[in-house]
Amino acid sequence: IVFDNRGIGESTVASYDDPITIELMAQDTIKLIKHLGIKR
User: Which of 1, 3, 10, 39 has the most beta carbons within 10 angstroms of its beta carbon?
Assistant: First the structure.
């Protein structure tokens, strides 16, 4: 699975006032894994 992190590649940035953090990118990854139904 390959996806664009926020602000990289074809992804857009919601707001330049809010920094993109490692924690936020990790949360995005967890949400994607759950959405795809990946167990392990």
Answer: 3
Radius of gyration, CA atoms only, the chain: 11
Q: Delimit the domains of the chain by residue range.
A: 1-40
- Dist CA 8 CA 5 (whole Å): 6
Q: Which amino acid is at 26?
A: A
User: Residue 4: which of 27, 23, 28, 22 has the closest Cα?
Assistant: 28
Query: Has this prediction a pTM greater than 0.90?
Result: no
Residue 38, token pair as written in the block = 């990946």
